[in-house]
Amino acid sequence: MADPRKPRRSIAAFLTGQADEEIPEAAKPPPVAPSATNVPLIPADEPRRPATRVVRPAQAAPRTPPPIAVGPDGEEVPIVALPDYAAPPGVVVSAGFDANGTEYVFEDDPGATPLVDPRYDAEDRNWVRYRTSWGGFLRIIGLVVVVLFLVVTARSRVYSWIDDQIDSGGDLGEEVAFTIPTGAAVNDVATDLAEAGIINNATVFRYWLRCDVPNGGEITITGFLGCDTEVQFQAGDYTLFENMTYQQVVDTFAEGPYVPEIFTIRIPEGLTFTQLFDRLLEENDLFDEEELRAAFANPDLFSKYLRPANAPFFPHEGLDFPAFYDVPEQDITDEAKFVGRLTNEMDIRIDRLVDEFGLPPEAEELGLDIYDIVTIASLIEEEAKVPEDRPKISRVIWNRLLAGERLGVDASVCFGAQVSCQDLTRSQLDDTSNPWNTRANPGLPLTPIASPGEASLEAAINPEAGDWFFYVLTDEDGSHSFAVTSAEHAANVAICVEKDLGCG
Fold first, then answer.
1. Omega of the bond prior to 47 within 30 degrees of 0, cis?
2. pLDDT class for 184, splitting at 50, 70, 90?
3. 200 or 219: whose pLDDT is higher?
4. Which one has a higher pLDDT value, 323 or 143?
5. Any idea which fold 141-254 has?
6. CA 29 to CA 79: how far, in whole Å?
7. How far is CA 159 from the centre of its chain?
8. Helices (H) then strands (E): counts for the chain
């Protein structure tokens, strides 16, 4: 049960040092005269103790019934230990004597020297210190100072950490090739930057960007959530470095994406493999000859249409697609990558044409595969001089194959003899040991004789309808005349001789 004499305390009372209620009158001891003893209760040279409400004996009293105090009128009064705020001010009250003769004194006179029993024990925890009227105010001041100190310290550490994220200091690290995809959000870019080690913290970078445009701004605690500026970066390739500051990153982005220098390598139609090899070294002097030769010998880089029997000897003859190839700066010294592009492009073009036209029915009848069609396309590439002649020359070749006649293509004879067609001799034209001699041997030559372009590939797959068995050059612009019979062909040859086009 709560003591009715004890006043209730609130938080405000604790801070201000005041009581919520005064102590009840019944709890106050009656005023009595000062002690009549001759023993001074405090040494003269002792400093004033702020307040002492109860003077206890130095040694505990025997366990006897509680002492009885006698008031001035001789009446017995209970010994009451009053709290600081309830002691009557300016009086000294004697509460009486115990069985050992120790007098108990209550006193409170702020302006007087307090009466303290000389036997006061400083280690006694039951003594209650006097709380001055400034106690609560000082507590409030102290609390405010502590809170301010904590806030300033926390703020300083937060700002210091943010500064370390924005600029961690130190030298730049390794170069990083960084790409911003088309349509990428700033959040995605920030995450990619952090994962690549270019910046320290993606979240801080995002808020830093949102606080100012275009180069980011200072992040403050009050404005941290208030920054809402939208920032966008141009998609493309950039060259960045590890451990960059935020400002260095956005400065690089502001310059726009890196546009690598593009080199163009030109490979015309109709080149033999030897000519193509030399052409690549001429077009790109950064290619290493030995590395290029090793790339062409790598089975992983062969066309999927290469005939296995020819793989050890002619793996690339006619199977590298002629075209203009744009090569980015970073790949200009990668021989294997470029050789892979050559064969892969040939496979892509063949697949596209087969999907569009299908294989000619003559191929199934003769048992020919796509490698044979590439061989036919290489013959067309070497014989045709004008586009409109290609599907007609293809028809002549298919008709002769169906009839079992020799093709009689001088270009294949020259290829096998390894001489120019202007230097062919009669013995070379009659040499049956040359597997590319289509004048002396029936059927197709052993391999393609050149790299055919897409037009020649299409002509081989989709020949023009006709009954022609012969063609001969009859015009200075490179046009041929086509004939069904030998007599028609003889007349066309006469025109070629008359115009001195190489038929004599």
1. no
2. confident
3. 200
4. 323
5. Dna Ligase; domain 1 (3.30.1490)
6. 8
7. 26
8. 15, 10
